[in-house]
Amino acid sequence: MRTYFVTGLIGSGKSAVCAILSGKGIPVYNSDSQTKALYDTVPGLVQRLETELGASFSTEDGRLDRGALAALLFSSREAREKLEAIVYPLVRQDFIAWREAQSGAPFVVLESAVILSKPVFDGLADAVVAVTAPEEVRLSRLIARGLTEEDARCRISAQSIDLSRADVIIENSGTLESLREAVSRTFFS
Question: Which of 27, 34, 132, 143 is such that its CA lies 20 to 30 A from the CA of 98?
């Protein structure tokens, strides 16, 4: 089955692209929400992460304390790399199983901001679609979502993307209608 990766920096509109696709009946695998689900459904995952990372971040009922984990990951690149080495292969397996279950769809989409920088996902996509927008547009979108300007700028500066790996670039600084037209041209023509 044909597989597209949809990627882009925070505030670029990759989620808007995926919402348009989903509205047209295209199955979309949101890697962020699926990864969060894996923490709760893969037996022993939280305990394995605690052992590997040398820290405790489980709640009294054994579930993941996302805030404690995030604090560790934002403070330590080494911890982030260890976590990714454990979790991303599970995400890959989960995506492959999910994709196989979508047999009636014309194609499927995996949405992720970081997918191009993670070699574990290489070879899964037939095409990569990157959604872009100027930094000031992304900044205003993040502020509209409720972030402070300082927090928004911090998140923007923490990300980068290699656009040379994209097969198609959708520039998203216009209207929702122009984005819908770009999605139609990219995925349905």
Answer: 132
Two tokens at 103? 């047999």
To which residue do tokens 């820290």 refer? Answer: 55
pTM score: 0.91
Q: pLDDT tens, 40-64? A: 899 999 999 999 999 898 888 878 8
Q: Report domain extents, the chain.
A: 1-27+107-189, 32-101
Question: In residues, how long is the chain?
Answer: 189
Nearest to 11 by CA among 118, 114, 132, 129: 132
DSSP letter string, 32-85 = HHHHHHHHHHSTTHHHHHHHHHT---B-TTS-B-HHHHHHHHHH-HHHHHHHHH
